[in-house]
Amino acid sequence: MSKTTTIAFDADDTLWHNENLFEEHHRKYCQLLSEYHDAETVESTLFRTEMRNLELYGYGVKSFTLSSIETAIKLTDGAIPSDELRRIIDFGKDMLAHPVELLEGVTEVIETLSTAHDLILITKGDLRDQERKIAKSGLSQFFRHLEVVSDKKSEDYSRIFRQHQIDPRNLVMVGNSLKSDILPVLELGGTGIHIPYQLTWEHERVASAPNQSTNFYELESIKQLPELIATL
Fold first, then answer.
1. How far apart are CA 138 and CA 2, in angstroms?
2. pLDDT tens series, the chain, 232 aa
3. Measured between alpha carbons, how far is 147 from 162 in angstroms, rounded to an integer?
4. Is residue 1 assigned to a domain?
């Protein structure tokens, strides 16, 4: 591969914890609706609602909360009391107000890599929420560019690379999602470094990892990243 000059990072579940908040919401949500349906029915119905609404609402906590309300109304045939709908709204507000918790070693790794490489942050979701998390993370000073996008497909990455005059052959993308962070960048000729998170949303799962090649790597921890980057 060409010399690495730019390192792009995903944010949620790559730099800070995120999916664990959704997991906790799911637990409380299923408990709230337990008198109406079993947890499996609640989860599967909610997921179908989310997938239906993605085109309208996009990604993020607000979208998730709206889909949770819609699902609750559907599963109770409209009988769910207003105070229980209020609790679902409060679940979402709690997620939006939750402190940003960085993964272990993130600050040191980002600071180290920023001294020799241009860093870019590419994250998808609700603009206001992502901007809040970026600001609270304390990491923005290390990134040359901060990009919040509505989706992460190859055309979204292509637009960003053109805008910032980045040759994908000289770029490494670091993320926890094979589907959103790694595969689109590999398709464009870049290098992907996959660092799995402990939880993966069903929508982000893929059947298998890319074939082992010179431009795909997998690490157990972000703390291993500087050593790998030094070899590329």
1. 31
2. 446 689 999 999 999 999 999 999 999 999 999 999 999 999 999 999 999 999 999 999 999 999 999 999 999 999 999 999 999 999 999 999 999 999 999 999 999 999 999 999 999 999 999 999 999 999 999 999 999 999 999 999 999 999 999 999 999 999 999 999 999 999 999 999 999 998 887 888 787 777 656 789 999 999 999 999 999 8
3. 13
4. no
Q: What is the pTM of this model?
A: 0.91
Q: Does any domain span residue 180?
A: yes
Report the number of distinct structural domains present in the chain: 2
| Strand-pair category, 191-194 with 145-149 | unpaired
Residues 174 and 7: beta-carbon distance below 8 Å:
yes
Identify residue 140 by its one-letter amino acid code: S
Last residue in a domain, options 97, 113, 139:
97
Domain boundary among 55, 72, 97: 97
Q: Same domain for 133 and 221?
A: yes
Question: Whose CA is closest to 115, among 26, 17, 229, 216?
Answer: 229
